[in-house]
Design a protein that fits this description.
Blueprint (H helix, E strand, L loop, with lengths): L5 E3 L28 E6 L19 H6 L11 E6 L2 E2 L9 E2 L9 E5 L6 E3 L2 E4 L2 E6 L2 E3 L5 E4 L2 E6 L2 E3 L10 E14 L2 E5 L2 E14 L2 E5 L2 E6 L2 E7 L2 E5 L2 E6 L1 E3 L12 E7 L2 E5 L2 E6 L1 E7 L2 E5 L6 E4 L1 E4 L7 H11 L15 E3 L2 E6 L2 E3 L11 E3 L21 E6 L2 E3 L27 H7 L1 E2 L5 E4 L4 E6 L82 E3 L10 E6 L1 H4 L9 H13 L4 E4 L7 H6 L7 H14 L4 E6 L2 H10 L4 H25 L2 E5 L8 H4 L9 H25 L2 E3 L22 H19 L2
Parallel strand pairs: 2-3, 3-6, 4-7, 5-8, 6-9, 7-10, 8-11, 9-12, 10-13, 11-14, 12-14, 13-15, 14-16, 15-17, 16-18, 16-19, 17-20, 18-21, 19-23, 20-24, 21-25, 22-29, 23-26, 24-27, 25-28, 26-31, 27-32, 28-33, 31-34, 32-35, 35-36, 40-41, 40-42, 42-43, 43-44
Antiparallel strand pairs: 1-39, 29-30, 37-38
Helix pairs in contact: 5-12, 7-9, 9-11
Amino acid sequence: MPRRFVLMFVLLNLVVVGRVWAQPDPFAVYDMGTPQVTALYVSPTGDDGNDGSAPERALRTVEAAWQRIPMGTELADTGYHILLLPGTYALEDVPGFMESRYGTFEYPVIFEAANGPNTVFLPPLNVYDGRYIYFINLNIASGTDAFHCEKCDHLLLRGNTFVGAEPDTYNTQETVKVNQSQHVFIEGNDFSGAWDNVVDFVAVQYGHFFGNRIHNAGDWCMYLKGGSAYFLVAGNEFYDCGAGGFTAGQGTGWQYMTDPWLDYEAYDIKVVNNVIHDSAGAGLGVQGGYNILMAYNTLYKVGERSHVLEFGFGSRSCDGQPGDEGRERCDAYLAAGHWGNVVAADGTNFVRIPNRNVYVVYNLIYNPPGYRSAYQQLSVFPPYAGAEQAGTTVPSPARADDNLVIRGNLIWNGDATMPLGIEGGDQPSGCQPDNPTCNSAQLLADNVINSYEPILSDPERGNYLVVDAGGFSSQDTPDFTWDVAVPPGNLSNRIPVDYAGEQREFVSAPGAFISGSGLVLVGSAQMVEATPVPQVIEATAVPQINPPPPSLVAGEALPPGPLTIVTLGDSLTEGAEDNAGLGGYPGRLLGMVQALRPGSILLNVGHSGWNSDALINGDQGLPSELAQAEEAIRAAVGRGEPALALVWIGSNDLFYLYEYNNPDAAGEQADLDNYSRNWDIILSRLTGAGARVMLALLDDQSLRPVVQRGEAFPGTSREEITQMSAQVRRYNDLIMQKAAQYGAGTVDFFNTSIFTDAATLADDGNHPNASGYDVAAQIWMNALLPLLAN
């Protein structure tokens, strides 16, 4: 399947993660702090006789750099930053077994591509007993397993690409495997290619899995099992997998699990804001999980083998033989009363591990016409009380549906004849009438199942924005409690943001995206010759900002260093009614950008009252905004600096259409055609000048008080206000289409309350006040941060 979008991360103002799970914000990415390190440069054309202190004195092999790090002792005076210069590194030049290097938070061991992503290509890496080891922007390809880390503490994988082998070759079992480890942070990577699982975590506690792509697996894309605990799995894309997308729990040899996480397969796993698509099996599953939240995920084209969601048992056996270390470990676990047995697994005699407290809420599951699951909506295993459970402390009967809550989901999969999958008959199931939290009547009452077909913007091209969910909206999810004998996890089930980092206060639909947000699609731009730069505005002070969780961006981040930003638009860009005098959103935004990119400049060419025609051609004797923007962009490109163009235009196009024209359907279409032509002119010229471009989706200005009161636009009738509301949606659809066509990004202002909330709206009922411009600047910054991370 072709690549459609890349997940990036906000790396500003992060929370330090220490040796305990104590992040006040679980949606923050891992903060590396300010490590004290010694740089060691490595190049395939270097010489191991060099000292590695500079690129011109680079070592030749990664092995030589690795051997300079003391083994078996905690680093106390310096860490090591191994900077890999571009090239392909041979298998014999990389350590075959990277063992017992003990970094600390202050003195870590960092492997990083010196020149950024897609410049360094490595063979498989195998890490054992490592602490505070970070791998950044590397490409690791293998005909077998690509990366393995065992007994690691504070492992960071950020911005890497891991490639195994095609599933049908059976050469790669797991592309990436982490086991018996703690504090594992996986951010913005691409994982692919395994006949079994692309990502396999066994007995791993504390960490997160943010903004990754996981695809091309024969079995599940990913699972966390074997007593894995305390993970947030958020903002990822799972696709092209056989057995399913993501599952919490599965089956584990008991001897591989770690004390005290010895009963459930998975504890405190929150799977939220993910996109799961083109999965032959179930999109999501739980097999032996405790306190598992699966919320606000979007599932598209899943379950054609059987069903879309799966709730089964974990399994537990001991593969060790009598007298060996593994068997002794299982004996000790059993004697202490934990859940398992000491019988070698032969496919029939393993014990079943139950589920308890599994919440599956506010997910969007959409199988479009022509695609459906083969048999049913759900698979919920019936209670199990087999002989294998006897003589153990595992609950008997084991239940897969103990406090299973499936509520608030919008499911379109097949038609009214599609069974839920819990009807019983020849195939017994869980979620029977005696289960108060999960039964047929409850499922039909608490979910919308095959009674309303949602409309997604363009899922076949990677845009899963919900255009219409029938007015369906979510509510708060009850928090968990904790009553098992392992350290408690995060009991809160509040999910404050969506996949794109938008605040969920404005949520109006289930799934990964709140209504009105969507994918930020940003392409690369052509660079052309420069012309002199015009006058720029000064930055104004802005309050400290908190970063959003992972955002979605296609294409690479902008090159490092200062940049030029040009803002084009109408009064919302000019900063009308900004009672703080900070220059609207552009003045605030510049300060935010300069915190990341010192020396950046911004030119605001916005004019009150201008529509898209005036932006292109100029008006009232004033020059074209577009011409001024092109001039500034070419000047930046000529200096070797990146340039951004931010365009927020269309409100006045709509206002003037209905105030002065009284259009019928044909008139509205003619207006839309003109707006489309103007976007072609704007985007072709801005991208042609060399800018990355971001486009603002418009708010529904028919809801603004100034329109509702009939003050500023007395010629607009109530009927035309309704027409305006429909037309703005057509405008936004067009903006998203043009953004995709020209490789631009979109920034959501449709799904905000800035223009309806008195706290953020000026007295004129039309423009933001100072607080509203604060919010607007933050929305722009949330969208831009992934492009600025270097």
